[in-house]
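Revision sheet: structure tokens.
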Amino acid sequence: MLVARGVTVAIKGKTLLQDVDLSLSPGQVLAIVGPNGAGKSTLLKAMTGERKTTGGEIELDGRALWHWTTAALASRRAVLAQSTEVVFPFLVSEIVTLGIRRNLTAAEQYRLVQRALVAVDMSTMSDRVYGTLSGGEKQRVQLGRVLAQVWSHGCTYLMLDEPTSSLDLSHQLLILRLAREHALSGGGVLMILHDLNLASMAADEIVALKDGNRIASGAPVDVMTDDLIAALYGVRVQVRGVPDGPFLLPQTARLPG
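Predicted:
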């Protein structure tokens, strides 16, 4: 398991997280929701080892996170950041290759790259320069890199920071399917999502953060309530209410395959 107990993060006197508990198990998809500035990315970075904590503890498979080397962490968890800057004119296939173990043969690496590009619907753009892609296409390439890391290292935990933020509907649903497939294969998935419909659709458990505090956690049906949405976002809504005009629920979509 990946476990956070009483995690606190403070930077320059400002507390970003306060005494937060969270646990991610293999086979589970967990979504973190909350308004901007709630501490979602800070919590994910703390749980990946990117952000130092000022209190509490984080354990990966029973060992304190700080005991793990960077290389060992790369073999246990793969991370998709909210944004990734690429300065040099790498090809799409070269970006995906960055996630693969170096001791594989060229043929093995090629097969993994092609598998990852097919998985994220970018197989026809293998030879495109990464910088010429749209924002959504870049995000899918980076996800392909992370999947290549998962498959080549055998990573258990997949950690995604707003993976659907710049994607169209079909590719948002594709991300959710990939997350569920990883969980079904025995991995754990931690996702930050802003779309509450997608979070309710994808997650086994939702953790809600506000002002650096965990204010709710549990199954989507228990967490996604009128009162919680009002507490999180200051907006009074009716969960499961039917609007007067046209509306679309991603839960009604059916992806091919």
